[in-house]
Amino acid sequence: MSPTLCACTKLRRSARATTTLYDQAISGTGLTTPQFSLLRMLDRAGACSLSGLADHSGHDRTTISRMVAGLATRGLVSFSTGPDQRERIVTISPDGSKAIEH
Description:
By secondary structure, the protein is mainly alpha-helical. The protein has helices at residues 7-25, 33-45, 50-57, 61-73, 94-99, and strands at 48-49, 77-81, 88-92.
């Protein structure tokens, strides 16, 4: 890897290196680093709307919806209806909690 003075390049390299470390650390869970991170965030925050989860995570709602759908397919999160019947509330499931006990 060639040296650089560019702060952006250094930051991106650092982020990739950190992600690689996390990928290795959680390899036994069957989760990707973003999935693991989202489950941990949901575990800490408690039941949350998709919009609230997007705001909390810094991702856009579309990305969160796609990620959460994959986690729901695996039984790691569940959905319920919010107070106004239009809002979907996401909750980490017992299997999701077990997956992040790593």
